[in-house]
Design a protein that fits this description.
Elements: H1 6-9, H2 16-36, H3 48-80, H4 87-115, H5 122-129, H6 147-164, H7 169-185, H8 189-208, E1 220-221, H9 223-238, H10 242-248, H11 257-275, H12 281-303, H13 314-326, E2 335-336, H14 338-343, H15 345-348, H16 351-368, H17 379-416
Length: 419
């Protein structure tokens, strides 16, 4: 057989439902930032704590979206990359990845620097150009979502190693999972990179285990799909091991990596159910284990009175309790929404640009809402300006992806002799 990718073997079949899922994830991140950038006290609700709890839940759903982004990225690379490694194929792969990343990424950087209160240093400029933010240089203050692109770029490089040396993906996942545990305890950034690589490898594993006869074209019955969706929400909202991570882990850990890595099991199963009827016993077992862990975390929180304390993740326990109570309702939900997601596939075409540029735009519209008010904040005006900022972000993302990126990519690929 020729050196074809799975994508080519299936007749260049694009899985539009995954594009729709990617677009929805980008919108989830956008909405989360639209609501969370204003301080909770501005909302016209008597109890600001309630607002904080709601925003915490939305923030955790935003984290779910990021995990899905990583899983989908690994899947797409595995799905479209030829099976047999060669130096020429590796060169084409890296060039195509850079062409996809850089035009919009550079625009996002220029936008961030333009709106920044302080001009970046030469070191910071070179650092972000080479995707080292969060490692050798600090994160970009007014564009926090770009932290993920550092990891994404590193994953592209690590994939070449996996591809060239035919590394067993299951074994690589185990090694990276161990690194995720160590990254919670040891402040060594390469461990964090390998820990997060577990998410990406899960998508890569899925792409290599597809069966073309199992691919779905339309909605179909699967209660299990809805069950794992609830489990994803429950697990991510309360970050199951956060209590132990923040008690025993290193204080500089930005997020409990191990929590995100464990979530990947059900996220991958969630993605798998959108494209194939193929049963994945490993992830069914993982979902059951995570359900038990969620219940154990609730019991631990109750015994330690965390539910009534000011512990940073107390809201997560409350959210998990609610979600576990409604878990049985998934028995009455029948259809996996493949057709609906396909109809939303156009959202996936602007997801990368929307994710990369929306944050600095929203910050500016936050500032605009207070012009001429002598520092006084009108909640309605602020929300309206945030909504306008979101719409501007979507429109600009459409211009970038559907016009600028297409032209630049076409010219660069032509100049470099890429198809």
């Amino acid at each position: 057989m020729k050196n074809l990718s799975i994508y080519q073997q299936l007749g260049n079949k694009r899985l539009e439902q995954l594009d729709g899922l990617r677009g929805i994830c980008a919108l989830v991140v956008l909405v989360h930032h639209m609501l969370s950038l204003p301080h909770p006290s501005i909302y016209p609700i008597a109890d600001p704590k309630l607002v904080e709890q709601i925003l915490d839940i939305l923030g955790s759903l935003g984290l779910v979206a990021v995990i899905i982004f990583f899983v989908l990225s690994g899947f797409v690379i595995g799905y479209t990359t030829p099976g047999q490694y060669s130096g020429e194929e590796a060169k084409k792969y890296l060039l195509k990845r850079l062409i996809r990343l850089y035009p919009i990424y550079l625009f996002a950087l220029l936008l961030s620097f333009f709106f920044s209160a302080n001009l970046p240093s030469i070191k910071d400029i070179f650092g972000v150009i080479f995707f080292t933010q969060g490692w050798f240089i600090p994160q970009i203050n007014n564009n926090e979502p770009l932290w993920t692109l550092h990891y994404e770029f590193m994953f592209y490089l690590l994939f070449v190693v996996i591809w060239k040396y035919k590394v067993n993906i299951e074994q690589a996942i185990i090694v990276c999972f161990i690194c995720a545990i160590l990254a919670t305890l040891v402040p060594f950034h390469p461990l964090a990179i390998l820990g997060y690589f577990t998410l990406w490898l899960a998508g890569l594993w899925l792409s290599k285990n597809l069966n073309k006869f199992d691919l779905v074209e339309e909605d179909y019955n699967s209660n299990f799909f809805w069950t794992i969706l609830i489990l994803i929400m429950a697990f991510c909202i309360q970050n199951i091991l956060a209590t132990f991570v923040y008690k025993y882990g290193i204080p500089v850990t930005p997020r409990p990596i191990i929590c995100n890595v464990l979530t990947t099991a059900v996220v991958t199963s969630f993605v798998a159910k959108l494209i194939t009827r193929k049963k994945i016993p490993l992830f069914k077992i993982s979902s059951f284990i995570l359900l038990l862990l969620s219940i154990a975390a609730l019991f631990y929180g109750w015994k330690k009175s965390i539910l009534h304390s000011d512990f940073v993740f107390r809201n997560g326990y409350l959210a998990t309790m609610i979600l576990l109570l409604i878990l049985p309702l998934t028995l009455w939900l029948k259809k996996v929404p493949v057709t609906i997601l396909k109809k939303l596939s156009y959202l996936g075409s602007i997801s990368y640009a929307l994710y990369a540029i929306h944050y600095p735009i929203l910050i500016q519209f936050n500032h605009l809402s207070t012009l001429g008010t002598k520092g006084l904040v009108n909640p309605l005006a602020l929300l309206l300006f945030n909504l306008l900022g979101g719409l501007v972000s979507i429109f600009l993302a459409w211009l970038l992806e559907c016009h600028l990126q297409i032209k630049i990519a076409k010219n660069l690929k032509s100049a470099l002799g890429l198809k």
